[in-house]
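Lab meeting notes turned into a lecture example. A postdoc, R.K., suggested we walk through two folding results consecutively so the class can see how the record format repeats. The first protein's sequence and structure tokens come next.
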Amino acid sequence: MSNKNAFTLAEVLITLGIIGVVAALTLPSLIQNYQKQVWVNQLKKSYSTISQGFYKIMSDNSVDYIFDADIFEPQRLVCLRELNSSECSPEITQNILKYFKIEKVDITNSTAYLNGRSKDNLNYCWIYADGSMLGIDEFTEDSSSLDETAMRIYIDVNGLKKPNTYGRDVFYFEIDGHGIVRPEKGTDCGEVNKPVNLETSDGYSCAARIVENGWRMDY
């Protein structure tokens, strides 16, 4: 008659306890890293969609300077900010919509800086079919060079969903005179391969850090 070895109840409980401790220590980090990758993937998609929209505007209008395009005539600039404004005729609205697959406009979306401080709402945001949002922050029509910033925009990759925080799911971009969309440069999100000071950073330049870091959120 052969002897059969088996784990005792105490050994099983100890093993389960160790597994539980390891899971408790590693699971939050895994979830956080997963969420960061989700935000980055959404950012890549939004960045591509918006870049294609501005490229098509430049191409269809055969212009070198973005504000020479019909869509950026003075009356239309108001509509770009406030697409649901009574000043926007159906013709102007449709002209804008054909370049950006916008479903509706929401006039407010509360946000925060990366360091947790509150910020003014994002106003008159374009909401896309996937829930992402785009808002135009400012125009700078008096740019003396095509390489200079012509306008600034913000992108909320998951719209009204939390955390609504710059550097996490809200990112700042600029468009130059050529109509090229590029991440806002700055130092508030630190340099690639150097830690971000989460207590002082606003998060405005985090999109640039993510792109330069090979589309990776390492903070």
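The second example is placed directly after the first for contrast:
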Amino acid sequence: MKNKTILLVEDNPDDEALTLRALSKNNIMNEVMVAHDGAEALDYLLCRNAHAGRDPERQPALILLDLKLPKVDGLDVLREIRANPSTQLLRVVILTSSKEEQDLIKGYRLGANSYIRKPVDFGQFMEAVRQLGLYWLVLNEAPPSAGEPV
């Protein structure tokens, strides 16, 4: 599990710290790359700008994507991920505090693998992160990378 990177796309420093703490407390020791806005997330995934030297074969095993992001909105990030052959099969879990039904519907229509509302209670959030890590990083079988034949 350690070699599977998680991309956390989160602009709120408190939510970032809370998520990192929940991952750590649940013994999810994967490397976590944090992107603080949608543009940075896309640059990381598409190996451009500040991430131009990153190995495009080393894509994250899981993307935890907030929706309300500066520069590029989370739904637009998801749209670009699904439109690009090198990223279209990546597992994307929307992790948001949005209670808007339209966000939920749009997220699934754009190809989100899962949609999780951040619980307000820390104990509930810890349990949600534990289950998320167990399912997406251990139990769930990832699709082959985009470069592999299907």
